[in-house]
Each structure stands twice: as structure tokens, then as C-alpha cells.
Amino acid sequence: MCANCHGTDGRTIEGSAIPSLVGMPKDYMVLQMKAFKDGSRPATVMHQITKGLTDTQIDIISSYYAAIKR
Amino acid sequence: MKRRSFVQASMALGSFGVLGGMVGCASVGRVPEKARVVVVGGGYGGATAAKYVRMLSNYQIDVTLIEPNGEFVSCPISNLVIGGSKTMADITTPYDKLSGKHGVNIVRDYVASVDPVKKTVTLASGPTIRYDKLVMSPGIDLMFNTIEGLKEANASGQILQAWKAGPETLALRKQLESMNDGGVYAITIPEAPYRCPPGPYERASQVAHYFKQHKPKSKVLILDANQDVTSKGPLFKKFWADNYKDILEYMPQHKVMAVDAKTNTLKFDVQNDVKADVLNVLPAMRAGGIAVQSSLANVNTRWCGVHYQTFESTQAKDIHVIGDSIMLAPLMPKSGHMANSHGKVTAAAIVAQLSDMPVNPTPFLSNTCYSFVNDKLVVHVASVHQYDNKDKTYKTVSGSGGVSSAPNELEGIYAWNWAQNIWADSLM
Fold first, then answer.
1. Who contacts B133 (Cβ-Cβ below 8 Å, separation ≥6)?
2. Residue pair B311/B346 in contact by the 8 Å Cβ criterion
């Protein structure tokens, strides 16, 4: 779901403007995803993607990336 | 995280991510008698499926990938090579990480036949490989015979498609460079569905951008068999009107029936003939030849029907078909991003099935597709597709997805990074 743009395991290539997700703190990622979803954080595409996710799915994704070591 | 919990996590979310772990040894060119998983085709779908079966099985399931080309050449971004702002090197990725880092056994060959009863594939060079699971990702075939005179004109190198990125991409660029200022480039588009819905409009934009900079007296004609622009229509049409007004002309409802190579003329079913200096004819498309030949293309003998939860063929057990070859669920485009997603859902399903574990009941996937309207400005379309266990198909999630509000440079940066990241995700 995320890896197509954010890299396998959330690791983007060197110099990517699209951020890595690996090791991102869970609380931070949940907040950002919800901010994209409710429109409070402007985005080019993430608002349209996060509107396709339930809060449970956002929680599972954020837990997954938080658990991976950088 | 142990393999079981990892596969369960990936099942909860379609699939994504990777465990660090054991790395297999590369062995390019070895033809085994048997592989647990054989993958046919090393594009966005097949390469991703091969890599993710290795990763999701914690490198326990052996994978042989059969691919005739020595390197991966990306269709996405290839229009920028035609427009002149990227090179072939920019869109080419070697397969060495797939073998060296992930232990995928790569055999450089074509598949001559598939036997779904004996569960074997036979290579063009002769040997036969047995499989437990087969992933078919052969892309598309261009149906040259649907347009009179096209097969010969393409074989001679005169009328190009460049819809499979590779030598024709560069050859089309060279035709445009050799064309005199004041010449006409015409691209024809078949009726949907075809690979990469916005691709022809992006290509026409790239050529128009090149003409505007270097050959301002030249023209671009888009001759579309469809009723209207099939993807990102309002965005493309506004940009053309604002920026390529005297260069680019869009003509819907132009279905090509024949080409006359002697006079470089297109003949349509209803409309008048069109003559151009550079003809770029895209014929109707269908599933890759090996899928058709193996009777997997059971929808109109053009596309392969699959059970969307696992991408297993509706025609043959233990054969999964992914990417542009399949009959897609509604509103799912034939794109590299989609094929990569199919590869992951399929890899997770195969690893679960070979490990006697339950398959994810509700996979979901997304699509993001960027189009360059010149060398810097980009528009996107995005969508999220959730598997519906009751109706056995993917449905777009209500309220999700959409397009750019306008062409913008920020997405130009993201689009190029998208390409680099998905190449790495599929191949490295």
C-alpha cells in the first residue's frame, strides 16, 4: 500500500522528497495521517489516499512502520 | 517479528514492508528442474511478486523468474525520453539486486508453453521447470493485425508504437529529431481498455513541449478512437488550450482501420484520411501472448479473468495472473503502480497458501499515476481499492482518490521520486 511510493519497508531512495516511513514514531504518524484525512494538513495526494483508510487501518500501518528499526 | 506474525500483519493490510534477514545467493541463468514459485515476466508486476515472495517467506521459498530482457526498462517516464528531458539510462534498472540481494533465480528466456495439469513451464530454449505456484505477468500484446498494413510498417521500423519501452522509445525520439520544422506528428489511440490510460495524452504533451521549444512550426495530432480523453481529461485539455493552442489538436472518435506506409497516411472507419510525417500508431491491446496461448485470457480472448482476492486465474488452479494482462475490477487502470500492488497481494497470498495459513480476506491496494504535461509540470490521479468479500471484487473507497487541482511543479518532483522509489521497491 505505502511501499510503491515510500519504498520497501518505508525506506525511500537517497535524496527522495517523498519521506521515509521507517521507524517513524507511531503517534506522530497517526496524527499526520489523520490531518491529511481531515484536510488540516495540505497535501498533493495524501489527502486522497488517507480518505480511503479507516482509523484502524491507519493505526495498523503506523504501528508497523514504528516497529521497524531504521 | 517472526514470519507468522509478519505475514499476518501483511495480511491485515494487503501487504507491504519487509523483514531484514537471510539473503539468498544469486545464480543468474541456472535452469532448475523445479521451483516452488515460477514467475513469468520481470516487469512491475512480476519483479515485485518475485521479490516479495522471497521477503514474505523470510527467504525460505525459492523463486525462479523468467524474463527475456537483460534489464528493466520502465514505461512510466519513457514519454520524457521521447520528449527529450530524460534518457534511456534514466529509465533503465538492472536485475542484479533481485538476484544478488533477494536470491531470485533469474532465467533469461521466453516461455514457450505452460502445462497447468502437469504444472510445468517449458522455455523457448527447451528445458522444462516444474512449479507449485506460477505467477504470470506477461504484460500486453499489441494487436498489429487489427490495423491493415501496420504489422509490416512496424517491422520495417517506419511506424512505431513505443508502447513497450525499449528500442522503439529511442527510435521514436530519433524520428522526431530528424523531422523538419513544420512537420506533423500523429498519435492514434485505441478504444479502452489499453495499457496506461493517460499515457498517450502525456506523450502528445511531451512532443508538443519539444516542438514548442525546438520546432515551433510543427504540429501534434491526437487521433483518439474514444469519445473523449480517457483520463485526466479536463486537466490535459485546459493545459493544451493554455500552452499548446497552435501546436496540438485533439480529435476524438477517430478509429484507425489501416495505414498506408507509402504515403504515411492513416485511414479511419468514418473520418477522412490523415497524413503525417511521424506516425505513432497504438493498436488495440490484449494480454501478453503466453497468457493468451495458455488459454488464460478467458474474457473475450483478450484479458485474463482472476479471483481478485488472490489473483489466481479463474481458468487454472495455482496460476496467478497479475498486471496489465488481467481483466480489471471497475475503475482500476492498467498501470505499473497497480501491477506492483497486484504483485504484493499475490505474493502474500502465495506465501500464506504454501505455508498452510489463511489468506488475507480483505486485501486493498492503491493507485497513483503521474503525467508530465511538459518537462516539469505534473498532474496525478489517485485511487484506493478495497476488496469486497461479498461481491468478490475491488471497490473504490467512497470519498477517496481524485486528481490534481492543476498542473504543478511540486508534483513534478514527487513524480520523479515516485518512479525511483517504485523501481527500487520492485527491483532492488
1. B36, B37, B38, B318, B320, B350, B353, B354
2. yes
Cell numbers of B44, please? 512491475
Q: Across the interface, do A13 and B421 touch by the CB < 8 Å criterion?
A: yes
CA B211 to chain centroid, in Å, comes to 27
Where helices occur in B95-250 by DSSP H, the ranges are 96-100, 150-155, 167-178, 199-214, 233-243
What ipTM was assigned to the predicted interfaces of this complex?
0.96
A6 closest CB neighbour out of B1, B413, B421: B421
Mutate to test the interface with A, among B51, B364, B400 (most CBs of A within 10 A): B400
Task: Quickly state the pLDDT bin for B18 (edges 50, 70, 90).
Answer: very low
**For residue B151, what are the contacts with CB-CB under 8 A and spacing of at least 6?**
B144, B145
Q: Does B14 touch chain A (CB under 8 A)?
A: yes
> Is residue B184 within 8 Å of residue B278, measured between CB atoms?
yes
Nearest 5°: CA angle at B19, between B132 and A25? Answer: 145
Place of cell 478512437: B225
Share of chain B above pLDDT 70, in %: 93
